[in-house]
Amino acid sequence: MSSVETKAATDSQWWKEAVVYQIYPKSFNDADGDGVGDLRGIERRVDYLDELGVDAVWLCPVYESPQADNGYDISDYRSIHPAYGDMDDWRRLLGALHERDIRLVMDLVVNHTSKEHEWFQRSRRRDGEYEDYYIWRDGSPDEPPNNWESCFGGPAWTYDDEREQWYLHLFDENQPDLNWRNPAVRDSVYEMMEWWLSQGIDGFRMDVINLISKAEDLPDGEPGAGQTGTEHFFNGPNIHEYLREMRDRVLSDDSLLTIGETPGVGVDDAKEYVGSDGDGLSMVFQFEHVTFDHDEHKWDAGDWSLVEFKEILSKWQTGLEADGWNSVYLNNHDQPRMVSRFGDDGDYRRESAKLLGTLTHTLQGTPFIYQGEEIGMTNASFASPDDLRDVESLNFIEESLERSDVQSYEDVRDAIEYVGRDNARTPMQWSDDPNAGFTEGEPWIQCNSNYETVNVERARADEDSVLHYYRDLIELRDERDVLVYGEFELLLPDHPAVFAYTRTLGDERGLVVLNFESEPVEFVAAGVALDGLELAIANADAPTVPSDTFELGPYEARVYLTPTQHTQTR
Ligand code: GLC
Question: Is the pTM value of this prediction over 0.85?
Answer without folding.
Answer: yes
